[in-house]
Amino acid sequence: SFQMQLRPQRFKSVDSGRFAVLAPPARKLAAPLKAASEGSVQAAEMDERIFAFNKIVIDTVYDIICFLYPVTGSKRDFARFYVLETVARVPYFAYLSVLHLRETFGDRDPNLGEKMRTHYAEADNELHHLLIMESLGGNSSVIDRTLAQTMAFGYYWYVTAVYAVSEQAAYHLSELIEDHAYNTYSKFLSEHEAMLKGLPVPSIARKYYIEDNPFMFDQFCTVKDVDQDGNFSQRRPQLETLYDVFVNVRDDEREHWKTLCNLVQYNDMQGVENKNVVGTKAKPIEAVSP
Asked: Model pTM?
């Protein structure tokens, strides 16, 4: 039926006793990725003026959130992550809005479809981060919801305008956000490991990471380790406590960061493989062509 086509059925695995799911074929090592890994493609740098301005914007937003939501090791911390996730998922909507408009007006770039699918998968991943924080009570205060949604609304239009003018600059904004997110979750995990390991896995986290078809999950993991056959490895999360949930949320943010680094530096989601991804560097003004 049509419904079955939209939501592929799971089949019981005789070997492992676990549910097998329909998933996208393993990605192959792309030609641009091979070339970049071999050093024949140079990573692009950002005009230091744009780099500095982006950093001011993101650091200011992040510092405001940190000031309003200091980490205390209590349930109040989940409100902080709710606000962060509400804002962090907005850029992927902005990218999709601009790309969809370009497609509507006749843009038939062969890479556009893959970008749109990946950005949708990234937005879906961030949505589930948000749902996890909501399940932990992060959105229980109307003040927190109002603040998060107001920031997200304004940031959406800002990113949309930037992306329409410069994809590289817009991707760099999100690269900075995802780097902040990864470091924030890493610090939270190290400082509150015992508390998190004493709490159960929310049902929405188990559904997303374990039970759901992994097609969307695999779609946003564009920069993974590569085996000898040129296949990207597939990440399959394991969840026992809330600590494991936050480990996977943190690792998701790193996946987004790697994809964004490749888009900024190579205009390709698979610009370089996992071990070679580094943050974007600023290009001195004197080196920027007039």
From this structure: 0.83
